[in-house]
Design brief:
This protein is 32% helix and 25% strand. It is α/β, with parallel strands linked by helices. The longest helix is centred in the C-terminal third of the chain and has 20 residues, at 343-362. The structure holds nicotinamide-adenine-dinucleotide (NAD).
């Protein structure tokens, strides 16, 4: 069986999620290639070594370029802060390696454009960490839409809110810098925009409002020294889709009570479906003529679920979605995959986010093709 060497950069929240997913994918799926955990890199060399040992990677590097150039690495997984996605992905592509990059793709539309072009010219497989789309319940929602069960789609109302920045004393981090693609729209909203495109299709025009509520935050936790903040804490936008559907999206990282509220309602001429990532194993569906919504639970009949459990209602979690994302990447690398959220699709998310920011800045409707 062919071997595929995995190189993972970063050992934070997402580095750990990727490491779990690569390990789990080997255990859960009958993959057509053998995944070899070849190398792990982190700027903190001691941590790279410790995590490599704990997570089963053969090599540890303190320098990410050594990982990219490691001949045992075929796939470079990037889980570092956003401003590092571009240099790391471009170096990996130049070395002819596949790239599995966290979202958002880049810190500017220009960078995202260069990345999709370089990947296309090199002919390497790319995927971006829009993991929520790999939920079997989202697969069911998409199938219902494609099969016309909701009739003609007329509306998408989506929200992705959390509260991890709600406390004004929550300190500055790279997520608070425009240059690092910070702000609620880039950090959370990008997932929602990708979901809207996946389920309803291209967006042609937008109008929006962005809002910075806390214009200063402590430079570090507990400090009296304050740093100015220019990124959005919350965003609200109206969308017009190419197929004629209308939509709203909003995102906030200040909304008390919400921890992972990626939610949407999609309505068509014959029905409505509703989803909330905080209850990710459920879909609510109402078909025309029913007196209210029916709750559908995830089960083994749905693609992706049975690999984890033979029993309905026993529930998948966040890390299983990441494992399903890795499976899709590996199938694409084995030449057996379907289209996925690659650099081209992730660039389109960046284009849409850029149009939303322009619409908010200039207080007008913006055609997405303008940016
Ligand atoms: N898909 C999702 O659901 C999801 C969730 C959270 C974060 N993310 C994305 O994942 C990325 C990382 O976010 P995070 O929350 O894991 O951040 P984090 O701060 O927890 O981890 C970042 C890691 O990158 C390492 N790093 C920084 N500079 C480096 C360098 N020069 N060389 C090597 N390693 C370096 C850090 O040491 C750390 O291990 C971001 O792009 C973020 O948007 C995605």
């Amino acid at each position: 069986m062919r071997e595929l060497g995995i190189g993972l950069i970063g050992t934070g929240f997402m580095g750990r999620a990727h490491a779990l997913a690569f390990n789990n994918a080997r255990a859960v799926f009958e993959l057509p290639v053998h995944l070899k955990l070849a190398a792990l890199a982190d700027a903190d060399t001691e941590r790279a070594q410790r995590c490599a040992t704990a997570w089963g990677f053969a090599q540890a590097h303190g320098d990410w370029q050594a990982l990219v150039n490691d001949p045992n690495v075929d796939v470079v997984a990037i889980t570092t802060p956003n401003h590092l996605h571009y240099p790391m992905a471009m170096a990996a592509i130049a070395a002819g390696k596949a790239v599995y990059c966290e979202k958002p793709l880049a810190v500017s539309l220009e960078q995202a454009d260069a990345m999709r072009r370089a990947a296309s010219a090199a002919g390497v497989v790319t995927r971006v960490g829009y993991n929520y789309q790999h939920n079997p319940m989202i697969g069911l929602a998409r199938q219902m839409i494609v099969d016309g069960e909701l009739g003609e789609i007329i509306s998408f109302q989506g929200e992705f809110s959390e509260d991890f920045m709600a406390d004004p004393a929550s300190p500055w981090s790279w997520r608070c810098e425009v240059e690092h693609a910070g702000g609620a729209l880039a950090d959370l909203g990008s997932h929602l925009l990708s979901m809207a495109r996946y389920l309803v299709g291209d967006v042609v025009s937008v109008c929006a409002d962005t809002h910075t509520v806390h214009a200063q935050r402590p430079a570090v936790k507990g400090s009296n020294a304050l740093k100015p903040i220019a990124v959005d804490d919350q965003v609200h936008a109206l969308l017009r889709f190419a197929n004629g559907a209308r939509g709203t999206v909003s995102s906030s990282w200040l909304k008390q009570g919400y921890k992972n509220h990626l939610s949407f309602e999609i309505s068509g001429t014959r029905g409505t479906l509703a989803f909330d990532q905080e209850r990710l194993n459920e879909l609510r569906v109402c078909r025309a003529g029913q007196d209210g919504f029916q709750r559908v639970l995830a089960g083994p009949a749905l693609t992706g679920y049975a690999a984890f459990s033979p029993a309905a209602g026993h529930q998948l979690g966040y890390n299983e979605l990441k494992t399903l994302e890795v499976q899709e990447l590996v199938m694409a690398l084995a030449g057996q995959g379907a289209a996925g959220t690659d650099f081209e699709a992730a660039w389109a998310v960046e284009q849409l986010a850029t149009a939303i920011r322009l619409a908010a800045r200039e207080e007008r409707w913006v055609d997405v093709g303008e940016v």
